[in-house]
Design goal:
Length: about 120
Amino acid sequence: MKKFFFLVVGAIAAIVALSMLGPLVGFGFSALLVYLGMHYYVKTNSKFGKVFWVALGLIGIFTAISNIPALVGLAAIFTVYVLYKKWNNEEVSFSKSKAIKEDDPFTNFEMEWAKLTK
């Protein structure tokens, strides 16, 4: 019965994920525009360049807002992933893994922040 439930829910989630493929592609493109706008805004020195990259970032934000249904597709993909792991009797863990390197800047930042806030 448990496998049947996984199969039915997985099939429904897969159908939803496939039906949201268009908004997912649009959402990814929007995220790319926002990233490029932020990245090059910091690097440029000219006023025209800053205006251009802010405008590009805003376009990316507005197109991301119009692709909000992509979040349903992301949730469906996540559901398929979790069900696949459960089907194979694998542990699903969302905590930090031991594979994080010690020279990772975000890990070092978190460790330093924890020291400062104690």
